[in-house]
Amino acid sequence: xxxxxxxxxxxxxxxxxxxxxxxxxxxxxxxxxxxxxxxxxxxxxxxxxxxxxxxxxxxxxxxxxxxxxxxxxxxxxxxxxxxxxxxxxxxxxxxxxxxxxxxxxxxxxxxxxxxxxxxxxxxxxxxxxxxxxxxxxxxxxxxxxxxxxxxxxxxxxxxxxxxxxxxxxxxxxxxxxxxxxxxxxxxxxxxxxxxxxxxxxxxx
Length: 204
Known about the structure:
Layout: E1 2-7, H1 14-28, E2 32-37, E3 53-57, H2 61-66, E4 75-78, H3 81-85, H4 91-103, E5 106-109, H5 112-121, E6 129-131, H6 146-149, E7 159-164, H7 175-186, E8 190-195
Parallel strand pairs: 1-2, 1-3, 3-4, 4-5, 5-6, 7-8
């Protein structure tokens, strides 16, 4: 079976990481997988040629593309926090997402809180919703001097909190920096490090 995984595939984002995990799981199950980047513009639709089903990450961006599939090709949408926390505030975007959900055979949420927000927004589609908690795999690795390389953990007794994420306004990952900064003023051993690229301008 040939399936498509439709997502923003911008490197170092949660979407691309989730899409790649899905790809690996599908391939291990013996499926042929096509990765389709929603940011590729008009060429993205050509990646759906010949697929027998599809999984789209995010109702808005993936949903727009998947609505163009032939009716015989089923698709599933994976709910994103940006869908219910940001895009739902815009009436036009909310209508676009509802149209995408209307054509889906299933909507997946990674947690119950997100599922509850979806149900509150679209109670008529609650029967499509299923909660599937993610189970990321963690590979063992050799110890490294990453903290020293970024100037953290100097001296004994340092309490270093590491935030692995890309920096972009819509996610506001640096809200924690303000609290940790205040904590650091009281206890200099407390430090916060971020490992990830600046993704300003990439809001997919």
